[in-house]
Design a protein that fits this description.
The protein has helices at about 60-70, 75-90; strands spanning about 5-10, 15-25, 35-40, 45, 45-55, 100-105, 110-115. The protein has two helices and seven strands; from the N terminus they run E-E-E-E-E-H-H-E-E. About 20% of the residues lie in helices and about 40% in strands.
Length: about 130
C-alpha cells in the first residue's frame, strides 16, 4: 500500500497564509464539484498548498480522519484505492505549490498545479 509525506493544507487567499494542521483529503463522494475536505473541520475547499508532514501517512489513516468529519463512503475498498491514487498523485507535486483537484474518467484523482510557491520567502519560517 502506498503512503505519502506530503499533504495539502487550507490556504487563506486574502491573507496569503496557510492553516497549519488543517490537512485536506480528497472528497470521497461522486459529486461533479469534487474538491478537498478539511480533516479538521469537514469544510470543502477547492485549492490547497502542499506541505511536508515529516511522517508517512497511509490511505487507511486518511480514511479514518475523513470518517471523523464526513459520512463514511459506501464502498471502503474503492475509497482506499482512490486514496492510494491520491497518495501517488501527491508524490509528483512539489512542496509549496498550490494544487486543485479533478478526476479522470476512470475516477482517478488529478492534482493540477495552480500556483508555484504560495508563500513568499519572508513568510517561510523554520522552527
Amino acid at each position: 500500500m502506498s503512503s505519502t509525506r506530503k499533504m495539502p493544507v487550507r490556504i487563506n487567499e486574502k491573507k496569503h497564509t496557510t492553516s497549519p494542521g488543517e490537512h485536506l483529503i480528497l472528497t470521497l463522494t461522486d459529486s461533479p464539484d469534487a474538491g478537498f475536505v478539511s480533516a479538521k473541520t469537514g469544510e470543502t475547499h477547492s485549492r490547497g498548498a502542499v506541505v511536508y508532514l515529516g511522517k508517512d501517512v497511509t490511505p487507511e489513516m486518511m480514511l479514518e480522519r475523513y470518517c471523523r468529519v464526513a459520512p463514511p463512503p459506501p464502498d471502503r475498498e474503492a475509497a482506499l484505492q482512490r486514496l492510494s491514487a491520491y497518495c501517488e498523485a501527491l508524490q509528483a507535486t512539489k512542496i509549496g505549490n498550490v494544487v486543485s483537484l479533478s478526476f479522470s474518467p476512470d475516477n482517478s484523482p488529478i492534482l493540477k498545479v495552480e500556483q508555484e510557491f504560495f508563500l513568499s520567502e519572508t513568510a517561510c519560517k523554520l522552527p
